[in-house]
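ok so i was messing around last nite and threw this chain in just to see what happens. nothing serious, just curious
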Amino acid sequence: KLYAASDSVYANAPAIYTIDATQTPAVITAKTIVTRGGNPAQKLDIEGLAIDGDGGFWLASEGDPAKLVPNAVYRVNDKGEIKQEIALPAELYGKESRFGFEGITTIGEGDELTLVLAVQREWKDDPKGQVKILAYKPKAKEWSAVRYPLDAVESGWMGLSEITASNGALYIIERDNQIGGNAKAKNIYSVSLDAFKPAKLDGELPLVEKVLVRDLIPDLKAATNGYVVDKVEGFAIDADGNAFVVTDNDGVDDSSGETLFLKLGNIAASN
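result:
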């Protein structure tokens, strides 16, 4: 059983989808609307989700200052009702861009539970070619971060699309925004949790080291007989170490309309 979410294309009905991945093709078996005060929640662009251990979810919503949509974290219960909202810390206000939160995962438990969020592209306070991975401890209400080095880009831009904790590592999707023959980078990297030491936001942030786990371009080509789509935006690893990838079709706006759901097998065991 896997979970996915719709983004701002369905702004009037943001939803969490339950997926049965034991079937081929995988099947969406349930849809849960995210609500605030009994109504579908507004000003959301859900780009990541993680189970909270109590039947609900932590949601990462990507902001867009121009549209007055905040980068924020929301906790919802099993009915999709928003029960907690976590805003950006003061240290990051005014520094964000429309390329914001793109994934969320959890590490630790109890008082040490930490939410880890991937930011897609550089913000105003980031060095060129480096993006933040943010960490937040709900119990202590403390923010911290590391910097993540992006690969050089031949054309367009590079950014992060997803983050998942598994097998002692953070698995991160890093991609360019190119399609077809221009697409050069659709990769899964790992960052060891032993080396993940986020620092306070008001000081120097450590730069993490990454290891290439899988080049997804061959997988994308195999799924479409050669054409590489752009937005690899969803990624999960199940309890057995099997990895799954899903693409975003942008609501078929300037897109082929296909959503690819790829089963990659066990990638964690060898990394």
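not much to say yet. The first strand starts at residue 2 and ends at 5.
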